Q: What sequence folds into this?
């Protein structure tokens, strides 16, 4: 992989986004309005609302529309007005996408997917080059749509990828800072902390090594806690010395009080549920999301990167406000496990399912909202199919990781048919 | 259960299993077609019924008649006098007439460009404000100056003017009544409806000076002749195959048939005997119009905005006069006036077999879905097959771990991206060059696959896996697109699916006779050949077809060209390339 081809891929991706958003000036606004891209907690339109209030010295959460982290406001108020100079906003998002791709490049080139500290895959010889992984991320239509739709989850994705990349390159401190940023922006990346700490522990640099796992974890968690506290304190100062922003940002995610449709599974369920059961099911849904972290981290202790990937896939399906941006992150991470593709079984069916959902989703949303000839069930049915496709990928990847591990223990079973009993 | 599962799993490796999918595909197509043919039977179609209780069709006494007839004759005389005048002079006169009743009048200029021609005109419309309403809802009465067949809509316009004067004197309206008099039946209403919803292109279409509330329904009158008529022809197809709520059609059928004793008919099926053949013919005509997606009358433009609309067209020789027509309109407006909310109770997806017999989406959708499924089944089958080593050949040279995806994907992507060329050409060229462009395109479309297969053969020694994968991807895209389309425009999805069905069964072969047969079959079912033969059988000049398609795209946003050029044609291109390619010896 030469520097030239790297520059070529990055420049090509940047140019493609720039051309798309300048040649079709109505495209960014169109994509921003799509429920598949913009969720209540990542929508650029809602950010604009918050920004307007913020710039007019009104508490940004007063409108009841804006639910994103307060520190995004000073960042975006630095940019020129998006209506008159959309190019600067586009450039910011392009930059963030390129940074994410760079982080992916680092992750892929580390070879962690095939060979971690405690586990060496017999298939590791066949790996995809970092450039290919970065290109798969940059030219993935979902990534492009999320970037042009200016969803703020792009920043979270970038922070998560940087956290992983930094953990791999032996700088736990930077990794913790990055994951703190991601958690501050979207909250759910906090759940990635355990596997990330394990990953960072495995990949410590020799110079500043801490042998005790417990000591290392405590330090890492303290760093993350300190960093998050600092960010929250800044937000506190920014929103008029009040903690009310917590309820309006993370509170919304915890209680799902905004029932705008998304591609996820929560909104329809909580529209239908009787109020007396709401609290119970909220707890159940969140518990379900959290429960994978411990189990996967313990079972796949030897491959923390696989744990992170599987968790990202699970979050893209089961978190309160998922969007295609989360899917694009999972798919980008999936590309790292090239050596496992031969033992994955449902890639084609899963891709076909997601392709079907990608086409049918907008059609059914149109029938429901615009044509008036369908109803909410149409769109919800297709989000179920979408989630099915993704969970097929997640379970298939889990299967492949486990099978790969198992074949090291039982070399005589290589290539044999197995079945679950 | 575990034992059953393990048997199923061991069956998975059975080579016999791989022989089944092509038959399943063929079976899907056969069932899909037979299913459609079964629909006209009594067991599969239902009688229509009015679902919306508020409509109460035919429950009011209608008073239009008597001295109104003299007024009607007067207005018809006025219209006759205007016959040779230009659009603006006509509108000046119409405006003065409408203002005379105390109706507020607005005018709107518009210009459309399509196929190098300019379609421009001026709409005139009046808003009759509801004595009992608050201008939040409105019903539209349309009479285009030129009827659908480009004749002077003498009785239609005169009737609307008479009705306007008559309605103005009633105090029972709770919704505003908008009287729209566009200069033609095609572009005028579209410009007006777009501007009413502020969705117009402000460079070419003027905004409306005067507006009322949300449109609840629209009725257009297409009545160009003098003589007495026998029945009312209800035209209901909207742009892109969208349909108005079935309750609107039911109400009109009910009012005309039950109250006035006027026969009604759909899809130009005069003298419908309610036999199987007649029902099937009605349904197929409906599907053809729906599939073309081309607007069928002034009402068509309303339907994309979720405004239920139909055109009433008197036909045949009989004893009903214009007053009876007026009473039908009065009765329908009284029903619409009763509505408490937008029409939503009844069906939006249906196929009519007869004025009072229909099938709903749940019953007919499986036939299109089966056609789409046949492509997906074949795609999955080919994917599985491409991953398996050749059975008879030695194991030494079996392709190393599966599939080379890059080149098949590149071919499929190329074919799909060049499909932008015909889409652009046919929607942007002028009428003079269109027929020539079509001819050139047809020729190059036939030559292109040969060039492709030659290129592929010389570039990288294609294996049969390459063809399996290209076909798999292409059929997957086709299946997905058609399945999506069938929820939006069932008929178009069904027609394209049926015409593309040979693509499921083609493959590269060494046998020259089979190859020639497949190639001829594919050429016969290629989009350009189908389009020109359809034009030839219906007796329309090719240039007219191309002009209409371009007009549909540029004015109404008709998406049929996208389906033909960007979904069907690339799939055909890949199929033809596969057929012509020499199969290599592995």
A:
């Amino acid at each position: 992989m030469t520097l030239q081809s790297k520059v070529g891929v990055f420049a090509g991706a940047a140019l493609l986004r720039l051309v798309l958003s300048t040649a079709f000036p109505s495209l960014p606004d169109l994509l921003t309005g799509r429920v598949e891209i913009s969720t209540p907690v990542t929508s650029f339109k809602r950010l604009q609302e918050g920004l307007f209030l913020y710039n007019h010295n009104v508490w940004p959460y007063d409108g009841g529309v804006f639910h994103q982290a307060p520190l995004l406001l000073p960042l975006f108020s630095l940019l020129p007005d998006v209506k008159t100079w959309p190019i600067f906003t586009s450039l910011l998002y392009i930059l963030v996408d390129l940074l994410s791709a760079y982080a992916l490049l680092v992750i892929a080139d580390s070879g962690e997917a095939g060979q971690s500290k405690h586990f060496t895959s017999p298939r590791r010889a066949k790996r995809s080059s970092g450039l290919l992984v970065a290109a798969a991320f940059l030219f993935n239509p979902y990534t492009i749509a999320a970037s042009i739709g200016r969803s703020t989850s792009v920043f979270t994705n970038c922070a998560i990828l940087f956290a992983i990349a930094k953990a791999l390159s032996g700088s736990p401190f930077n990794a913790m800072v990055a994951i703190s940023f991601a958690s501050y922006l979207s909250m759910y990346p906090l759940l990635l902390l355990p596997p990330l700490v394990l990953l960072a522990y495995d990949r410590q640099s020799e110079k500043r090594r801490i042998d005790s796992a417990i000591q290392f974890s405590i330090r890492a968690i303290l760093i993350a806690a300190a960093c998050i506290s600092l960010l929250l304190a800044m937000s506190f100062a920014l929103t008029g010395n009040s903690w009310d922003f917590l309820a309006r940002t993370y509170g919304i995610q915890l209680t799902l009080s905004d029932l705008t449709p998304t591609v996820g599974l929560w909104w329809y369920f909580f529209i239908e549920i009787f109020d007396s059961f709401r609290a119970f099911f909220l707890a159940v849904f969140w518990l379900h999301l959290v429960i994978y972290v411990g189990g996967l981290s313990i079972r796949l202790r030897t491959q923390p990167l696989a744990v992170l990937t599987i968790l990202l896939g699970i979050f893209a399906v089961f978190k309160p406000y998922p969007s295609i941006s989360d899917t694009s992150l999972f798919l980008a991470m999936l590309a790292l496990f090239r050596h496992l593709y031969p033992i994955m079984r449902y890639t084609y069916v899963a891709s076909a399912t997601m392709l079907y959902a990608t086409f049918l989703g907008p059609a059914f949303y149109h029938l429901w909202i615009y044509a008036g000839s369908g109803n909410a069930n149409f769109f919800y049915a297709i989000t179920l199919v979408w989630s099915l496709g993704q969970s097929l990928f997640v379970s298939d990847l889990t299967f492949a990781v486990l099978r790969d591990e198992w074949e090291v223990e039982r070399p005589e079973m290589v290539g044999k048919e197995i079945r679950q009993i | 259960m575990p034992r059953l599962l393990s048997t199923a799993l061991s069956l998975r490796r059975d080579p016999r299993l791989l022989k089944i999918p092509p038959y399943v595909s063929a079976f899907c197509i056969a069932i899909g077609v037979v299913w459609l043919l079964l629909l006209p039977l009594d067991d599969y179609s239902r009688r229509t019924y009015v679902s919306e209780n508020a409509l109460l069709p035919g429950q009011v006494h209608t008073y239009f008649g008597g001295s109104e007839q003299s007024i009607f004759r007067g207005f018809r005389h006025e219209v006759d006098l205007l016959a040779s005048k230009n659009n603006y002079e006509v509108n000046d006169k119409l405006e003065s007439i409408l203002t005379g009743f105390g109706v507020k009048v607005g005018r709107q200029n518009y210009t459309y460009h399509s196929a190098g021609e300019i379609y421009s005109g001026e709409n005139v419309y009046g808003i009759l404000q509801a004595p009992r309403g608050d201008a939040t809802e409105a019903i539209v009465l349309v009479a285009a100056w030129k009827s659908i067949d480009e004749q002077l809509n003498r009785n239609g316009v005169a009737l609307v003017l008479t009705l306007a004067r008559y309605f103005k004197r009633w105090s029972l309206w709770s919704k505003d009544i908008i009287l729209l008099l566009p200069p033609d039946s095609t572009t005028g209403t579209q410009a007006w409806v777009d501007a009413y919803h502020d969705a117009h292109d402000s460079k070419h279409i003027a905004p409306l000076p005067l507006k009322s509330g949300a449109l609840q329904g629209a009725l257009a009158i297409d009545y160009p002749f003098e003589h007495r008529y026998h029945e009312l022809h209800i035209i209901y197809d909207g742009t892109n195959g969208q349909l108005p709520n079935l309750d609107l059609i039911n109400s009109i059928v009910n009012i005309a048939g039950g109250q006035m004793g006027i026969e009604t008919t759909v899809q130009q099926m005069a003298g419908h005997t309610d036999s199987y053949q007649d029902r099937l013919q009605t349904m197929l005509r409906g599907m053809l119009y729906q599939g073309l997606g081309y607007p069928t009358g002034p009402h068509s433009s309303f339907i994309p905005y979720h405004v239920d609309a139909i055109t009433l067209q008197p036909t045949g020789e009989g004893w009903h006069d214009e007053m009876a027509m007026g009473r039908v309109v009065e009765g329908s407006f009284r029903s619409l006036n009763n509505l408490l909310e937008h029409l939503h109770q009844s069906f939006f997806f249906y196929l009519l077999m007869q004025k009072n017999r229909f099938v709903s989406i749940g019953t007919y959708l499986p036939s299109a879905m089966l056609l789409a499924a046949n492509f997906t089944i074949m795609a999955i089958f080919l994917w599985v097959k491409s991953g398996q080593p050749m059975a008879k050949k030695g194991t030494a040279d079996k392709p190393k771990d599966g599939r080379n995806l890059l080149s098949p994907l590149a071919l499929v992507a190329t074919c799909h991206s060049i499909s932008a060329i015909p889409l652009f050409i046919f929607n942007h060229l002028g009428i003079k060059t269109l027929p020539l462009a079509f001819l050139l395109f047809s020729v190059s479309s036939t030559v292109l696959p040969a060039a492709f297969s030659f290129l592929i053969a010389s570039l990288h020694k294609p294996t049969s896996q390459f063809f399996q994968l290209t076909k798999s991807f292409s059929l997957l895209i086709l299946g997905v697109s058609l399945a999506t389309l069938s929820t939006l425009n069932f008929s178009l999805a069904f027609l394209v699916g049926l015409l593309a069905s040979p693509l499921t069964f083609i493959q590269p072969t060494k046998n020259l006779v089979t190859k020639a047969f497949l190639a001829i079959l594919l050429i016969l079912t290629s989009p350009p050949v189908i389009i020109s033969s359809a034009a030839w059988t219906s007796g329309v000049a090719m240039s007219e077809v191309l002009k209409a398609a371009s007009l549909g795209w540029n004015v109404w946003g008709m998406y049929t060209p996208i389906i033909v050029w960007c979904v069907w044609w690339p799939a055909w291109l890949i199929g033809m390339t596969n057929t012509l390619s020499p199969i290599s010896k592995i």
